[in-house]
Amino acid sequence: AKNSGRNTYCFFEDAMQKRADQRLKVEKELRYAIDNNQLELYYQPQLDSAGQCVSAEALVRWNHPERGVVAPGEFIPIAEESALIERLGRWVLRAGCWQLQEWQNDGIYLDHLAINVCARQFHCGDIVQDVRDALDYFGVDPSRIILEITESLIVENVIDTISKMNELKTLGVRISLDDFGTGYSSLRYLKQLPIHQLKIDQSFVRDVASDESDLVIVETILSMAHHLRLEVVAEGVETEEQLALLQARNCEYFQGYYFCRPVPSAQFVAYVEEARNK
Ligand code: C2E
Ligand code: CA
Ligand code: CA
Ligand code: CA
């Protein structure tokens, strides 16, 4: 028994070592990827209630030389464990601002682009400076960027959140509260913080047509948001039925596979042009 205990211990130690090695490897590869153009932004349309594509959410992908297209869930958490996320975040901000201008030159005008920002990037880095730099560099108007942050990011450091969000507001950049309803309930912050928009999490949208409680949650979020003069985006819209239910309750914007998956820029442009000609 003594022996097997020791073996178990060694086994765990090996497994932990392996995981640490693996993480270091990915970190190194990711650092290389950022500097060597292996990252790419995909874009998912956001439509208004008239069916017009008025904006998009930028979602990062890693074109890995061996693994192909890698989804952010596989590398953002690793980047977030180190200062790498700040570099990645700056890359995303710049790529997004560049793309907005590029589209505009090609006759594709979006009201704004939504860009995801995670906790470490927001609190540890100088997010305000990073945003300002990217906007200035490409001559993008601040009102055309919406930063998507989560409730947990706020709760992690309320003082820092308040001061940085106020600076961003002064700059003219807007804030959207992503995955709303899934994190620590922070209803108080809706009033205190300069938030412009709520995104109803896709977990509530998924069963909105079949589950009475989800419908009530969605209705409650919409009614509360509208009383607080916040606009609402529903994410994860996959069916016509979901869309109809949300539209009937005055949700302003919609995003999901029902319209379009996140796609590379060229496909996004094709989507917008096709929708325009309909
Ligand atoms: P998120 O911000 O909640 O993004 C929504 C996710 O839902 C995206 O996954 C999107 O592809 C997916 N989605 C969109 N429509 C539908 C739908 O109709 N049905 C379903 N089932 N899913 C849908 P993705 O692209 O894999 O991104 C995952 C997460 O990675 C994002 O969640 C976000 O938290 C993070 N992320 C993505 N890009 C960035 C980035 O540039 N920076 C940071 N910090 N995080 C990012
Ligand atoms: Ca998001
Ligand atoms: Ca979300
Ligand atoms: Ca999410």
Automatic annotation (TrEMBL):
Domain EAL intervals: 23-276
Residues of the signal peptide: none
Name of the protein: EAL domain-containing protein
Source organism: Spongiibacter thalassae
